[in-house]
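Quick one, T. Sequence first:
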Amino acid sequence: YRDLATAIVQLAVKDYKKTLRAIWRNPKSEAERRKLIKEKIELEEFFHSGEYRMYCNIDPDKLIKNCYLTAIEDEKKAISRRNKRKIKNQLKDYKEEQAHETGKSIV
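Structure tokens:
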């Protein structure tokens, strides 16, 4: 029973962080944004519910705050990875362009 309760809370935490990050990434449509906000609210309601208190004795507000802070750090790392990839691709394109212009091969 304890393992199941832990798994339920862990899944809710994972979903909450994923939902926060999706909201921050500016959803493609207003309908998608509303859906994400609804999911966020439903998860917050779960964290404040009696069912959650049956599964876990962690303060829900502290849990939500921790999820928020962790999601911020995860998003920063993801942005950094995307930027590094973008710069790497731009550099590769630049080198290919220079090689094409000079007729030299890329080393």
